[in-house]
Amino acid sequence: MQNIVILTGAGISAESGLKTFRAEDGLWENHPVEEVATPEGFARDPDLVQRFYDERRMRVLAAQPNPAHEALGRLERELGDRLLIVTQNIDDLHERGGAGRVLHMHGEVLSAWCQRCDARHRWERSLRDGPSCPSCEMVSLRPDIVWFGEMPYQMGRIFGALEQADLFVSIGTSGAVYPAAAFVQHARDARARTLELNLERSAGSALFDETRLGPASKLVPQFVQ
Ligand code: BJW
């Protein structure tokens, strides 16, 4: 039995109706990245950033997992702790697709983080109206999201799993953002086989042993079979 690490990006949720970032009609088109996805942007205009994530939160709550998420849920039931899903996505579609062991390296939009007491709370409503933290009652909640310049979550566990991996699969990510873009090289260093499933070749495509091109809702169920 082999250890598998799967990295997912916005492409796996595209067919659930959630926009990717870097496509022509993507999320960054109307929102300059430095305004909405940096701590400096949040300090400058918290209302704009909260509004951006309020809208994303509503869209995630309305979205449904697609056959790609569901296939990974089935794979996890089969492989148990030999499978680790690492997602850059802030939605909860892997979990609703049946996967329980998911590391959200860029945070979760359905979580609010208190900058005062460090507590995290599941959050489904707006953060714009200045709600107070249920733990310390201070008004200092922000979206529990990893912005540019901040340290992604769970890096120790992720690098540990990559060192033990026999197979690394990257699904629906452009390979434009580090450190996730470097995982394929870590997996290669650990002598894992590397496979890319994507609509089009990613930035690091040459580093993969194999690339299969097509929509995730087709390629992922085929891979899992
Ligand atoms: C389909 C499909 C379908 C479409 N089926 N596929 C040089 C070297 C190293 C680092 C840096 C560097 N220069 C700058 C940095 C740092 C920076 C960085 O990487 N910048 C780049 C722009 C160069 N990184 C950071 O700041 C990170 N922190 C950090 O590095 O800390 C220091 C550190 C050092 C060492 C170890 C550890 C840490 C933090 C990055 C935080 C990223 N945050 C964001 C926004 C917040 C989340 C949110 O709002 O949702 O995360 S940015 C955005 O990009 C989001 C995504 O998770 C991330 C990746 O995007 P993704 O998922 O790849 O989406 P797209 O749109 O780019 O691609 C979609 C893909 O899907 C495409 O390929 C399509 O083809 C495909 N697709 N439909 C299958 N149906």
Automatic annotation (TrEMBL):
Give the subcellular location.
Cytoplasm
Gene Ontology terms for molecular function: histone deacetylase activity, NAD-dependent; NAD+ binding; protein-malonyllysine demalonylase activity; protein-succinyllysine desuccinylase activity; zinc ion binding
Catalytic activity, reaction form: N(6)-acetyl-L-lysyl-[protein] + NAD(+) + H2O = 2''-O-acetyl-ADP-D-ribose + nicotinamide + L-lysyl-[protein]; N(6)-succinyl-L-lysyl-[protein] + NAD(+) + H2O = 2''-O-succinyl-ADP-D-ribose + nicotinamide + L-lysyl-[protein]
Q: Where does NAD(+) bind?
A: 9-28, 88-91, 172-174, 198-200, 216
SUPFAM superfamilies cross-referenced by the UniProt entry: DHS-like NAD/FAD-binding domain
Question: What HAMAP family does this protein's entry cite?
Answer: Sirtuin_ClassIII (MF_01121)
Q: What is written about domains in the entry's comments?
A: 2 residues (Tyr-53 and Arg-56) present in a large hydrophobic pocket are probably involved in substrate specificity. They are important for desuccinylation activity, but dispensable for deacetylation activity.
Q: What is this protein called?
A: NAD-dependent protein deacylase
Q: Which organism is it from?
A: Aurantiacibacter atlanticus
Q: Which gene encodes it?
A: cobB
